[in-house]
């Protein structure tokens, strides 16, 4: 009961538009003021809540102290392995990104052990930076571009040519020491970041994570949809043309072959250099992005016809390219999605920058603490 | 509490492998024998449970009376409008189909009002048959090949060229009188029929309803997955080739154009006559079904990559054609589904015959009564 009430108080503080007083929390939770005060004392003592000085107020009476999530409370470390970069960030309890790092290195020539060691080093370095700034990292989550089991086994990451990589086992006892690390799919974590960055605006959507590979995170009624076994969202391997070019997964005509980063940048420099060139050269972008958008729209129309969501969020490299991609995505959706006849689809660019999955990973750690503060305070 | 316990007792009786005694029910529910006896008396009085004579038993003591769901208790009426037939059936509380009717008539030249009046007549006739046999129809559900809202509005049924048909309003006060009628998508109801026909074997699957159109009912962890707004499963309009033939929905290259009944039967007699010819002529079937199976497999592979289910059930006309369709469906799935590398897919023919959606509709009515017996007994 106490664990439940601690979480309830934290939720009220997190959801409030301005720092609520203890009396405000009592009123909104229905708990007595004495109970709320005891819970707040515990949460302040546990480093999860901070008190902020009273704002000048009209009227009589002693102005009340306001409560906020503690910006120097436990923080989350988010890490991301992607095909051509590693990324990491530290997010505080309020959801603010405090430290960030990205390493643009093609991971494909490297062994899984080398890549995992490098991302662990990046994490350890961010953890040290956070500690120097007065923040304790409470846990970590790692985003990977592949299909992961609950035990941290990466079954398959086609663009890295990884299969059966025991990521959790490899990380244990490395540079991250005994920090708990969970492992999840990068598009899932990026979709969660999008959901929480947006406040209350989004209900159900497909987040499209455009990188070397293309993944999707599906959110239904503000919950991540994971499919029957946790391996949903492999949008990059939805077929666009059954006799199209061969994909790294082995099949023919997968979406990645038409709209993945390497298809968009053929004959251009790889990575950020090529992407910057596309964004800067409107003529070039108009020449090659709409047809990629059409392929994306064909694949997404099938997804929407099956899953019934009304919003598509273009993320990763697709976010900044949305001005050239979105019109043809929208055209295919309105042509092919049955419900669009009476309920038009929305296509929008992600509100997040690059490495959204790392932000989502760190945010997931922090939200776990807020959801079960008693767990954290016991440690 | 009493309502909850009535349902609990019914569930125990329904799940038992042999008719349980009142003492058995008390033991399995944790309720006292006195409470169980009172509840059972109510359920027997309400016509939901029946008592069956004691089986000869070894040992001393008076043999106990066994409890079963009442085969003459309230029954469900299931109705189905499909593109080239109307169907109906009455299912008793035990899930057994007691009455059945199918009318093979192409519905496309007819107006929605005419079709709805005809299916209501069919329902009224089945209700009369059931009454003559001593069964009271407690409610009805209607399956339609389109996208339906909770209020019984058919937003769109592409193969009937229907849109915005107020089916619930049109049925009200017609030949079905004041019988409550709910309306749902035919593939959803057929998937529910498959789930319950199979006992405990199926957990998560895509049921493919092959008719003139192609629909899908998605079951995840034994629950129907409806998508964000209830309009999931439009498999027939997943794209196979972006520049393929034009579909009735207006888009190009939809699955229905490759694997719908009319594509399978081109140059053959329409309907059951053509299907019977295909099934009887192995050479003909081998000539045209595998390529339809490949298209089905391409579309389903995308669905499975997105939704993560491990079983595909081929239903409707695809069930009896599975010997010729399934191998190419399986080949595409194993080629294209990422998880199939370590977790092979299962493709199987439906356990149900034709008009599975009508059976699913009737079963849904009966399961609603069993889930909330107090509601039924109050009326």
Automatic annotation (TrEMBL), chains A, B:
Transferase found in the keyword field: yes
GO biological process, one term: regulation of DNA-templated transcription
Molecular function terms, GO-annotated: DNA binding; kinase activity
Top-level taxonomic group: Bacteria
Domain HTH iclR-type stretches: 9-50
Keywords: Kinase, Transferase
InterPro entries linked: ATPase_NBD (IPR043129), ROK (IPR000600), Tscrpt_reg_IclR_N (IPR005471), WH-like_DNA-bd_sf (IPR036388), WH_DNA-bd_sf (IPR036390)
Alphabetized Pfam families for the sequence: HTH_IclR, ROK
Gene3D superfamilies in the record: 3.30.420.40, Winged helix-like DNA-binding domain superfamily/Winged helix DNA-binding domain
Transmembrane spans: none
Similarity annotation: Belongs to the ROK (NagC/XylR) family.
Record PANTHER family: BIFUNCTIONAL UDP-N-ACETYLGLUCOSAMINE 2-EPIMERASE_N-ACETYLMANNOSAMINE KINASE (PTHR18964:SF149), ROK (REPRESSOR, ORF, KINASE) FAMILY (PTHR18964)
Protein name: Sugar kinase of the NBD/HSP70 family, may contain an N-terminal HTH domain
Organism: Asanoa hainanensis
């Amino acid at each position: 009961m106490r664990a439940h009430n601690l979480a309830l108080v934290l939720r009220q503080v997190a959801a409030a538009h301005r720092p609520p007083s203890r009396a405000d929390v009592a009123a909104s939770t229905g708990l007595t003021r004495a109970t709320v005060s005891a819970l707040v004392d515990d949460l302040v003592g546990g480093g999860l809540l901070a008190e902020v000085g009273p704002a000048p107020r009209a009227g009589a009476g002693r102005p009340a102290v306001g409560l906020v999530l503690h910006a120097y409370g436990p923080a989350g470390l988010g890490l991301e392995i992607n095909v051509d970069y590693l990324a990491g960030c530290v997010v505080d309890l309020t959801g603010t990104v405090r430290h960030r790092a990205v390493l643009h290195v093609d991971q494909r020539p490297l062994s899984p052990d080398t890549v995992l060691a490098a991302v662990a080093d990046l994490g350890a370095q961010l953890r040290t930076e956070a500690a120097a700034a007065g923040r304790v990292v409470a846990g970590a989550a790692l985003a990977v571009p592949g299909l992961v089991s609950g035990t941290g086994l990466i079954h398959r990451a086609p663009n890295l040519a990884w299969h059966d990589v025991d990521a959790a086992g490899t990380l244990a006892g490395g540079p991250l020491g005994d920090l708990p690390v969970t492992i999840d799919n990068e598009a899932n974590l990026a979709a969660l970041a999008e959901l929480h960055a947006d406040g209350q605006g989004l209900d159900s959507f497909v987040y499209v994570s455009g990188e070397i590979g293309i993944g999707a995170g599906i959110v239904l009624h503000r919950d991540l949809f994971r499919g029957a076994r946790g391996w949903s969202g492999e949008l990059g391997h939805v077929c666009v043309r059954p006799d199209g070019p061969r994909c790294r997964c082995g099949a023919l005509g997968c979406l990645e072959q038409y709209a993945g980063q390497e298809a968009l940048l053929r004959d251009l420099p790889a990575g950020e250099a090529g992407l910057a060139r596309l964004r800067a050269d409107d003529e070039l972008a108009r020449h090659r992005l709409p047809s990629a958008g059409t392929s994306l729209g064909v694949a997404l129309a099938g997804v929407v016809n099956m899953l019934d969501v009304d919003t598509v969020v273009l993320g990763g490299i697709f976010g900044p390219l949305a001005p050239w991609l979105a019109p043809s995505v929208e055209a295919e959706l309105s042509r092919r999605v049955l419900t669009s006849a009476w309920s038009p689809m929305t296509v929008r660019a992600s509100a997040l920058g690059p490495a959204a999955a790392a932000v989502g990973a760190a945010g997931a750690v922090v939200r776990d603490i807020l959801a079960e503060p008693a767990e954290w305070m016991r440690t």
